[in-house]
């Protein structure tokens, strides 16, 4: 129903009128490797520390340096922090892209640029803020490296004047960042002051778009999803991570290692109580994790689409041999190498049925860093309870960008769920042990760990067909019995998985979404409600689906399915699993240009679809 929207900055945008105070978008256009990332992050964090809801989005190339990079910061007092179309203030530092960057600014918007070199006027409906960044740094700093780096700090200082950022917050953050390196504090603060004073001396400050201290972000945190996953793995009891580096998943294991060094060191001996193994490829990485899970450890690996493709064979082994393991898939744009540093939700079908044959996998869909933490910790319980792989489906937008969320929380009384695990005492009471016997009728067999008992509980783990006693078989009927038991296990799985999140009021139309698209949904609902279109919404948080998902579809005349891929993969999965009587009622809203879907894109697609819905209803 809806194709992908154009690439960011490709054409001039229009957007709903912004109020100006605590409600605008600033975009930085830089060159990758120029040192701009830390300055831009300083800008976003300063706004957050003023208590104002803020959402930064880093749009960067997959090379080391030299190509264009963008950093987009949305400020919104109401807490609408999904990506917004259009830019109110462009910091245009990259000469390669300056024409295209200026074109993306909304009418009456602002452009801050380096006037050390003349700029040919490109638009008459914008307000230009020329600041000679290079000339200022040439005059004030002797070291060539400082001259380049401090240009970024100078424009942050100017923005502090233009937008009324609390200057003490900026200087305090610099002092904190360079604590113990006092020689770096003074020149950084001096660069801030240079930009601030130049803006004050040459322009009316602050601009109509500006900031006022607020309490809307008080008590919340800024965190990226990959960091939250790494910490969640520690709290979830993981002790082994095996991996092969792949953007955008690498920082998951980096984060896990960082927290393990703080929390998994034996205080008495100083020995590490964790292992991080870099494998030769992705197939080996998940093989190591499966082996560790078979041996009783809580283990995981992290990857993205290309790596998950290579892991298919071992995912099938873990499914059929029923070995717990966790995989974090931080999705990026495909197919093939695709765009490694852009976001997408294109791996749903690949992961739901990963491996050949009749295979089903457990999927979890976090939407916030807090859920990344919670789902990461819970995934190990689920994997052991169901004795199967669990794939946590994040993406680059959620994984690598910082998001405003509630503080993380943990119940110290919580105990790990090891599932149906027999120890030596329990084995002593059994006459016989069948590794794949359905003793309780729920499809989940009992398992043992290597060495649990000197005489009982041992079995041969195989990926070939086996019977209830784990013995090899080529009896087709016996194989079918095992497959039927696995189907029962997955039919019962939803009771152990996160339930969908519903906001319903008995409306005719509904909207289904999942993962990082959640950041745009509240804004869409409010915008449509102002136009007389009220939608019920359901956020999917796991697969296999709960019964509530089927009931939601059946209860509505039309259900929009919002997802970030070309082929409407979630819609296809809903059709396969929910067996909806009327497939036409599922209407996809798609975006696959590599940037986070915006509320305007979803709203426009629904408004465009309304006439055809009316015709369908009358027919």
Task: Give the gist of this structure.
By secondary structure, the protein is of the alpha/beta class.
Describe this structure in words.
It contains 20 helices and 20 strands. It is of the alpha/beta class and about 625 residues long. The chain folds into 3 domains: about 25-200, Pyruvate-ferredoxin oxidoreductase, PFOR, domain III (Pyruvate-ferredoxin Oxidoreductase, domain 3, 3-Layer(aba) Sandwich), CATH 3.40.920; about 225-405, Thiamin diphosphate (ThDP)-binding fold, Pyr/PP domains (Rossmann fold, 3-Layer(aba) Sandwich), CATH 3.40.50; about 500-619, Rossmann fold (3-Layer(aba) Sandwich), CATH 3.40.50. A 7-stranded mixed beta sheet has the order 9-8-10-11-13-12-18, with helices on both faces. A 6-stranded mixed beta sheet has the order 2-3-1-4-5-6. Mean pLDDT is about 95; it is low at about 5-15.
